[in-house]
Specification:
The chain has 390 residues and is α/β, with parallel strands linked by helices. The chain is 39% helix and 18% strand. The protein has 15 helices and 14 strands. Strands 3-12-13-14 form a 4-stranded antiparallel β-sheet. The chain has a 4-stranded parallel β-sheet with strand order 4-5-6-7. Helix 3 packs parallel to helix 4 and helix 12 packs across helix 15. The chain is globular, with a radius of gyration of 20 Å. The structure holds zinc ion (ZN). The site of zinc ion has 5 residues, from strand 4.
Length: 390
């Protein structure tokens, strides 16, 4: 894939030096022969909650009851050594699914944030990381903003960004939302939050703030250039004009019965579209499943849904663009050597025609890829996962 385009290079060579891709093409010299397997970019998951991996698949009653019953108690316990151990396992599982960059929410405890930055740094992955800011219905509410500022100053770097993360409008007072907007502006930090996910949530926001959901964020200074909004399921044309970056979370939106994002409207709005697993409302960290679910829900609604290239792009380069990382998301010279090695025999069925177009191959990867098809995952040129040896 080059500059957002596509290249299928049979018997290709990927030359890596000091963690970076230095050449892509056809070459005879190689240190490792991975044929006949496929090399594709690592995924970028633009929305997931680290403490919620343990909740995946628990039967929900809709967003708000699910948060109260399951999420807040689990996050309240996500501290100390437990946070360190479970964060480490989250990263293992994420990498095992071929995801090499992500936008992550931790728990509200500072040690959860420390654990996440340490895990991201040790794994060498690009990430946005932030604790969910909340002072309403919160399991932790003192010094929320001061603590966020201290954590931002401690951790924010080029590769691992501290993201100002108001959990969602309903968990925040006006003061906290404005303080969050102010913090992002003063320290030039990215912002991530949820927007227009679920009808009950949207009604409640209207009731409490007396204005449309997107306006609540806009007036708090949270709709800047580097603000990423998850879900965006129930949007007006006015809402679409206020935002630039979206994390589309189709598996989560189905699981919590929140609805289906309006794909044609999102395309018309011209926003940067990416994909998020939204674990733990999404049932797993696999971006293969996220791509496939997106294809299915939009194909049912309209013939103009995203095609395989759109989906694969959103899961890789689109995600990198949504997070403002220019050095990941595709296999091009100068980019970080973040890639997956896929088992050819699991992607392409026996007896398939010998010469396939790049389009057909991408379609096979989107529709047949999964965790067990991944043989190896590399991050910055280092072997991070080796299923081939297991
Ligand atoms: Zn979420």
């Amino acid at each position: 894939m080059r500059g957002g385009g596509w290249a299928d290079i049979p018997d290709g060579t990927l030359e890596v030096r000091d963690g970076l891709i230095v050449a892509v093409g056809r070459g005879r010299r190689h240190d490792f022969d991975l044929r006949p397997n496929l090399i594709v970019p690592g995924f970028v998951d633009t929305h997931a909650h680290v403490p919620q991996l343990s909740l995946c698949g628990i039967h929900p009653d809709g967003l708000l009851p699910w948060l109260r019953k399951w999420v807040y108690p689990v996050e309240a316990e996500f501290q100390g050594g437990r946070a360190v151990e479970l964060t480490r396992r989250f990263f293992q599982e994420m990498l095992a699914n071929g995801t090499t960059a992500a936008a992550l929410y931790t728990s509200a405890w500072p040690e959860s944030v420390d654990a996440c930055f340490e895990a991201a740094r040790d794994a060498g992955v690009h990430a946005w990381i932030g604790p969910p800011l909340m002072d309403i219905g919160a399991y932790r509410r003192s010094r929320v903003l001061q603590e966020a500022e201290e954590l931002a100053k401690k951790w924010d770097s080029k590769k691992q960004r501290f993201a100002v993360t108001p959990r969602f409008a309903l968990s925040c007072t006006q003061d906290l939302l404005h303080g969050a907007g102010d913090l992002a502006r003063r320290l030039n930090l990215p912002v991530q939050t949820h927007l227009n996910e679920n009808p009950d949530e949207i009604r409640e926001v209207r009731h409490r703030f007396h204005k449309p959901y997107a306006d609540v964020y806009e007036e708090a200074g949270l709709t800047g250039e580097l603000s990423l909004f998850a879900h965006c399921v129930h949007m007006t044309s006015r809402d679409w004009k206020k935002i630039r970056r979206v994390s589309h979370c189709p598996t989560s939106n189905l699981f919590l019965k929140s609805g289906v994002l309006d794909w044609p409207a999102a395309k018309r709005a011209g926003v940067r579209m990416s994909l998020g697993s939204d674990v733990g409302a999404g049932p797993e960290l696999s971006m293969y499943r996220v791509m496939r679910t997106a294809w299915e829900v939009h194909a049912v609604r309209s013939a103009k849904g995203p095609g395989p290239e759109d989906l694969f792009r959103m899961a890789t380069l689109g995600g990198a663009e949504a997070l403002g990382f220019e050095d990941i998301g595709s296999l091009e010279p100068g980019k970080s050597a973040d890639f997956q090695v896929l088992d050819w025999n699991q992607i392409v069925p026996a007896g398939a025609p010998p010469a396939e177009s790049a389009h057909d191959l991408i379609s096979r990867i989107v529709h047949r890829g999964n965790r067990s098809a991944i043989r190896q995952v590399y991050v910055a040129g280092h072997l991070a996962v080796d299923h081939a040896r297991e």
